Amino acid sequence: AQSVTQPDIHITVSEGASLELRCNYSYGATPYLFWYVQSPGQGLQLLLKYFSGDTLVQGIKGFEAEFKRSQSSFNLRKPSVHWSDAAEYFCAVGGTGNQFYFGTGTSLTVIP
Amino acid sequence: SAVISQKPSRDICQRGTSLTIQCQVDSQVTMMFWYRQQPGQSLTLIATANQGSEATYESGFVIDKFPISRPNLTFSTLTVSNMSPEDSSIYLCSVSRLRGGAFFGQGTRLTVV
Predict the structure, then answer these.
(1) Nearest Cα residue to B110 out of B12, B39, B7, B5
(2) Does residue A70 sit at the B interface (CB-CB below 8 Å)?
(3) Is the dihedral of CA B22, B83, B69, B28 positive or negative?
(4) A48-78 per-position pLDDT tens digit
(5) What number of other Cβ atoms are within 10 A of residue A16's Cβ?
């Protein structure tokens, strides 16, 4: 069965520091992987996606993620965090029937 | 992509009553999905709504509590019936393209008092 694990419930980083949010997935075939961001009181916005090709994918707002099949991971990174990046981040895997399975989310706090 | 309009955006309801949430998509889609996001938690799929057939419910969700309508390829409703405070959540409508990702409405923030 498909599942997604985000081991970090909450992360705090200083503005300007680098960021890495972890995501591990369980899926039988080649996964379709996604990262979403949810700002307070807002809906979910797609940051980036992977389904084939180059394992390093670029997204919006300066985010990137790397697919590592051997580690079943799809970690999200950003070289320099901005205060506006404070939000909840969800990793998701797309399954059969166009269903999506979401991780429990990582809450990001950015301190000045 | 897809533009999804969901309403109401928020509501405060008395326990024991029901609320119907509407979801309108700007293009025809075969499947629409309803999720629940409880406070501080991730998204849980409630059901998948196909046009012309009964909705398919995930484990832990039943039709009597969450009846769904799907009258055409651009519209769906979710009703939260006989509400209790435990139903206080954000309810999200979604459509998806497997390679494109899932797209969400802004959600309905429900508070049951």
Answers:
(1) B12
(2) no
(3) positive
(4) 999 888 899 999 999 999 999 999 999 999 9
(5) 12
Residue A92 near residue A76, CB atoms below 8 Å: no
Residue of A nearest to B105 (CA): A43
Residue located via tokens 């990137």: A64
| CA angle (A27, B25, B81) in 5-degree steps | 80
CB-hemisphere CA count at 13 Å for A108? 28
Q: Which amino acid is at B45?
A: L
Per-residue pLDDT tens digits for B1-51? 788 999 999 999 999 999 999 999 999 998 899 999 988 788 899 999 988
Amino acid (1-letter code) at residue B73: L
Please give the interface size between A and B, counted as residue pairs whose CB atoms are below 8 Å apart.
Answer: 55
- Report whether pLDDT(A98) > 80: no
- Choose among A7, A46, A39: nearest CA to A23: A7
Distance CA A73, CA A65 (A): 10
A59 touches chain B (CB under 8 A): no
To which residue do tokens 């980036």 refer?
A48
Q: What mean pLDDT is reported for chain A?
A: 91
- Residue corresponding to tokens 């039943």: B62
